[in-house]
Amino acid sequence: MAIGYLNQTHWRLSSFDSRVFFGDWVIFVGFEQIIGL
Questions:
Q1: pLDDT of 5-37, one tens digit each?
Q2: pTM, whole model, 2 decimals?
Q3: Rounded to 5 degrees, what angle do the CA atoms 12, 25, 31 make?
Q4: Helix/strand/coil for 16
Q5: What's residue 9's pLDDT?
Q6: Three-class DSSP category at 10
Q7: What's the N-to-C CA distance of the chain in angstroms?
Q8: What's the half-sphere exposure (Cβ side, CA atoms, 13 Å) at 7?
Q9: What does R_g of the chain's alpha carbons equal in angstroms?
């Protein structure tokens, strides 16, 4: 699940600041824990 998310948003690393990507990653991991994946 996490790997798929990284693959889908990998392009953002070259278009957005790395801090924006990291923020999205933290939110995604938190969401994953909430729904129990």
A1: 666 666 555 555 556 666 777 777 777 777 775
A2: 0.26
A3: 135
A4: coil
A5: 61
A6: coil
A7: 8
A8: 4
A9: 10
